[in-house]
Design a protein that fits this description.
- The complex is a heterotrimer of chains A (261), B (372) and C (309).
- With 261 residues, chain A is mainly alpha-helical.
- Chain A contains 11 helices and no strands.
- Chain B has 372 residues and is α+β, with helices and mostly antiparallel strands.
- Chain B has 2 domains: 15-240, Rossmann fold (3-Layer(aba) Sandwich); 248-371, Nucleic acid-binding proteins (OB fold (Dihydrolipoamide Acetyltransferase, E2P), Beta Barrel), CATH 2.40.50.140.
- Chain B has 8 helices and 20 strands.
- The longest helix of chain B has 18 residues, at 177-194.
- Chain C is built from 14 helices and 2 strands, in the order αββααααααααααααα.
- Chain C is globular.
- Chain C has a single domain, classed as MetI-like (MetI-like fold, Orthogonal Bundle).
- A two-stranded antiparallel ribbon of chain C has the order 1-2.
- The chains are: A mainly alpha (261), B alpha+beta (372), C mainly alpha (309).
- Chains A and C meet through helix 1, helix 3, helix 4, helix 5 and helix 6 of A and helix 1, helix 4, helix 5, helix 6 and helix 8 of C.
């Protein structure tokens, strides 16, 4: 039986407190009637109202949402394919190169990736805007999806695939009807991760965007440089709420899925 | 050398392995193995772990490709056929039931691949459920079943397509003892009733001996012996097989004379043995006599016993009492260690032979087997 | 007949396999490998007032003499600037120091947390991992922003400190190195905790019991058994943090001062403010070269983890 000492419990508790404290403060102060952080003016939703009228902010949020959904989906497809290759394809010519390309974006500083992609778009003479940001985000988040799906594939019981083939199912059909449904929770988790990374990203979006495609982080960043503004607390709280709801929903869904395993 | 069915050499084998080898890198899992399996046989591949039996089974199923040699089914070469095109089905050791499908869905899976019409599928699935005594379980999911029930579903799923050969990979290893015994008999009944060819892989001797019509004993990627359970037990063809199956006493010696099936051996440790065994050997050859413990008679020194051939004196070192039988470990005067088992026909009131007693061990000439 | 059919199947399968490899490979080559090569090329170019703002530009239409001119136009001038200007050198050094310090602190804080989670009851573990991971899913920018709230001159930290009587005047927290490190540690904590947890969770309890049985006190068993066995997790977490931190931009930009910049900020400034693409590219390539060893080690670890299974 695992025994957790007082030290263990304290470290986890402190760690979680450290992680959530700033968030809690944000949420609370988004309801602060007063403008200043130092003064508590009572509960109020005026900043949410102000947010509702801030068209620029709302546009940026909508752009971010669309880019995130698009790039997450593309990254999920590509990332899953890459994971399948890395886990199943065995040795092939160029495998080291392939895995190098897949894992590199995970650790490279974003400024380098952002710069590189922008230079590519310029060299190809592509108009920068919505689509270039989507491409850039797909490239960035692809590796994360691969890591998530890959770890699920490694623990996947291959005798299920063998059983299907033994019963007459050709390999491709086996993958689509047996493997894919069973690793789907991992792919979904990868999608969510990719969505968040894209929605969240400032550096790469700044490099690869063009006129008319301002993302929410870019908008927030330009406002933050001018000082703390309560509307930002409000939009941050909304984003936190959306993510929290999404995560809870995903966990419940995957628990139901896991029971059938 | 192709090991065949001694009873029916004219019949064409259903499955034939022709000098099949399998290498994984530098490791040789199966080495130039040739084997015939006949229709309606219950054939067992038996051997210690790492002997290559599972590899052989997987090659038959199509999950591994032979590095050398061919595999023939009904005379046709299936070596290059992928698994989903072979009329062979397998029951997996881990059962490998599809967790997201119901019991019916699992059993129907193979039939759907063949494009069978739905009405027929439903009928066949019902038939299978009745066969494995799981009527009414159709709508359940695998995680709602017990281990024994899951095993039946795996069996039903593999039988649903009425394959030419059914492969079973250690099918009973996950079950507890009582269930294992019951299931063994059911498997035998099923095979007889359906008239199918079963090939089972197991490391459990008892299982192989009970279930199989013929056993292929494997060691180090090769077939050591292929014969009926009785032949393997009573007439092992090598020291290794004699030692692997059951308990055995091996006495090394040199042939003094061999004529008309009567072989006289001078034991290395001292003493003379007479064995009635028609095997090719010449005087002077170095051989071992294999004696099963239950065929050796043990008597106390007090009772009269002839000395001479097949008779040795010794001291009891250890007694293992198992209720129905006792195993005596005896150290002979010439230094050899022998094992003797005695079955009790009457209720034991008092142990007549105790540890430390001086005893006579003797055995009839027909009890032994000479091994080269 | 059966053999012919199976051969055909085999070729169809090979093409299918190749396609699966090709699709992501093609994407990554076009959108990752080639851009990196372009950065390399631009780093060897000169800046100019034109569109695009660098020369030479490869004009394939000009044929072979065009290519010769192109190669002649390349130079290592930008790298010379980097090597000679003290500003850049301090920037690199500073980034590595901050990254190293942050990674160290992350390890010190992250290890107990990961260890604590690994020792929690099974069902609770999944929840705790999610709890550690969740802040990461909320916008990164938000959380840095939240720290600004706390650390600014009229912020909550000062309020609390004054109220507790620890200080009399508000302390300047923002625009300091301490704030940068704090922001970094805060943001990258999940990156350290999760790989550590993954390794610690796999560890066999009975090894510690064996150590105790052989006479090792708990702290000794920890150093002699647990730590060495979690080495791969430590290295993975450390690399996963160190490498991106070295190139961080947002955190030092928002929480740090304007006197000494980290390399990510330098690159940003060169590109967006000075509009000097070639120098920015050179900065990027130089950073990549410095980080090459850790990146390769990380790749190697990933490949080995795949093969070990």
């Amino acid at each position: 039986m695992r025994k957790a000492s007082l030290f263990n419990v304290t470290s986890v508790a402190l760690g979680l407190a450290f992680l959530y404290l700033p968030i809690a403060i944000l949420v609370i102060y988004s309801f602060n009637a007063s403008r200043l952080v130092t003064i508590w003016g009572g509960w109020s939703t005026r900043w949410y109202v102000a947010l509702w009228h801030d068209q620029a902010m709302l546009d940026a949020a909508w752009t971010s949402l669309r880019i995130a959904a698009l790039s997450a989906t593309a990254a999920s497809v590509l990332g899953t394919l890459a994971a399948v290759v890395l886990v199943r394809a065995g040795r092939f010519c160029g495998r080291t190169m392939f895995s190098g390309l897949v894992y590199a974006p995970l650790v490279m500083p974003e400024v380098i990736i952002g710069l590189a992609l922008l230079l590519l778009f310029v060299a190809l003479d592509l108009d920068r805007g919505f689509w270039t940001v989507a491409i850039a985000h797909t490239t960035l988040t692809l590796s994360f999806v691969t890591v998530v799906v890959q770890s699920r594939l490694l623990t996947f019981d291959r005798s299920l695939e063998e059983a299907a083939m033994d019963l007459g199912c050709p390999p491709l059909k086996t993958f689509l009807t047996i493997t894919l449904p069973l690793i789907f929770p991992a792919i979904a988790a990868g999608w969510m991760l990719a969505f968040t990374l894209s929605f969240d990203d400032l550096v790469i979006a700044s490099f690869s965007t063009g006129p008319g495609a301002t993302t929410l982080p870019m908008r927030i960043y330009s406002e933050v440089r001018l000082g703390v503004k309560p509307e930002i607390n409000a939009i941050c709280t909304i984003m936190i709420a959306v993510v929290a709801v999404g995560v809870v929903a995903a966990t419940l869904a995957s628990k139901r899925g896991a029971r059938t395993l | 050398m192709v090991e065949g069915n001694p009873d029916d050499s004219a019949a064409r084998p259903l499955v034939r392995f022709e000098a099949v080898s399998k290498r994984f890198g530098t490791i040789v899992a199966v080495e130039r193995l040739s084997l015939d399996i006949f229709e309606r046989e219950f054939f067992a591949l038996l051997g210690p772990s790492g002997c290559g039996k599972t590899t052989l089974l997987r090659m038959l199923a199509g999950f591994e490709q032979p590095s050398e040699g061919r595999i023939l089914l009904d005379g046709a070469d299936i070596s290059g056929l992928p698994p989903h095109r072979r009329p062979i089905n397998m029951m997996f050791q881990s059962y490998a039931l599809f967790p997201h499908l119901t019991v019916e869905g699992n059993i129907a899976f193979g039939l759907k691949q063949d494009g069978m019409p739905n009405a027929e599928i439903a009928a066949r699935v019902g038939e299978m459920l009745t066969l494995v005594k799981l009527d009414g379980f159709g709508a359940r999911k695998p995680h709602q079943l017990s281990g024994g029930q899951r095993q039946r579903v795996a069996l039903a799923r593999a039988l649903a397509k009425r394959p030419r050969v059914l492969l079973l990979d250690e099918p009973l290893s996950a079950l507890d003892r009582k269930l294992r015994e019951d299931t063994r008999f059911e498997l035998m009944e099923l095979q007889e009733k359906l008239g199918l060819t079963f090939v089972i892989v197991t490391h459990d001797q008892e299982e192989a001996m009970t279930l199989a019509d013929r056993i292929g004993v494997m060691n180090g990627g090769r077939l050591a012996q292929v014969a009926t359970p009785a032949d393997i037990y009573e007439r092992p063809n090598s020291r290794w097989v004699a030692d692997f199956i059951g308990d055995v006493n091996l006495i090394e010696g040199r042939v003094v004379s061999a004529a008309l099936g009567q072989i006289i051996i001078e034991s290395v440790a001292g003493g003379r043995l007479i064995v009635m065994h028609s095997t090719d050997t010449i005087a002077g050859a170095s051989v071992a006599v294999a004696l099963r413990p239950e065929k050796v008679q043990i008597d106390t020194m007090t009772s009269s016993a002839a000395s001479g051939e097949n008779c040795f004196a010794g001291r009891v070192m250890e007694i293992g009492y198992l209720g129905g039988v006792s195993t005596f470990k005896v150290k002979l005067d010439n230094g050899l260690d022998m094992k003797v088992t005695v079955a009790y026909r009457r209720r034991l009131t008092e142990q007549s032979i105790k540890t430390g007693d001086l005893v006579w061990l003797s055995f009839p000439p027909e009890a032994g087997v000479v091994l080269q | 007949m059966m053999i012919a059919a199976s051969n055909r199947e085999k070729t169809r399968r090979d093409w299918g396999d190749r396609l699966v490899i090709l699709i992501p490979a093609l994407w990554l080559t076009v959108f990752f490998l080639i851009p990196c090569l372009i950065v390399l090329k631009i780093s060897l170019s000169q800046t100019t007032i034109a569109q695009p703002p660098y020369v030479p530009v490869l004009d394939l239409g000009a044929g072979w003499p065009g290519i010769k001119d192109f190669i002649a136009g390349l130079s290592f001038d930008n790298y010379k600037i980097l090597g000679s200007d003290w500003l850049y050198l301090t920037s690199y050094l500073r980034s590595l120091v901050v990254a190293g310090l942050s990674t160290f602190i992350l390890l010190l804080i992250g290890y107990p947390i990961a260890y604590g989670i690994a020792r929690a009851p099974r069902q609770l573990q999944a929840v705790l991992v999610m709890a550690v991971f969740l802040p990461f899913l909320t916008a990164f920018l938000i959380r840095i922003y939240a720290w600004i709230n706390i650390l600014q001159r009229e912020g909550l930290l000062n309020d609390a400190l004054i109220a507790l009587g620890i200080v009399r005047e508000p302390v300047v927290w923002l625009a300091t190195d301490a704030a940068i490190v704090l922001g970094i540690v805060y943001s990258y904590l999940p990156f350290m905790v999760l790989p550590l947890y993954a390794t610690l969770e796999k560890m066999d309890e009975s090894l510690l019991e064996a150590a105790a049985d052989l006479g090792a006190p708990r702290w000794k068993a920890f150093w002699l058994v647990t730590v060495p066995l979690s080495a791969s997790g430590i290295i993975a977490g450390a690399l996963l943090c160190f490498i991106p931190i070295a190139g961080e931009f947002v955190i030092p930009d928002l929480l740090g001062g304007s006197d000494a910049l980290m390399i990510g900020q330098t690159l940003w400034t060169e590109f967006f403010q000075n509009k000097d693409w070639p120098v920015a590219s050179a900065v990027a390539i130089a950073l990549l070269v410095i980080l090459l060893a850790p990146i390769l080690i990380y790749q190697h670890l990933q490949m080995r983890a795949l093969e070990d299974r």
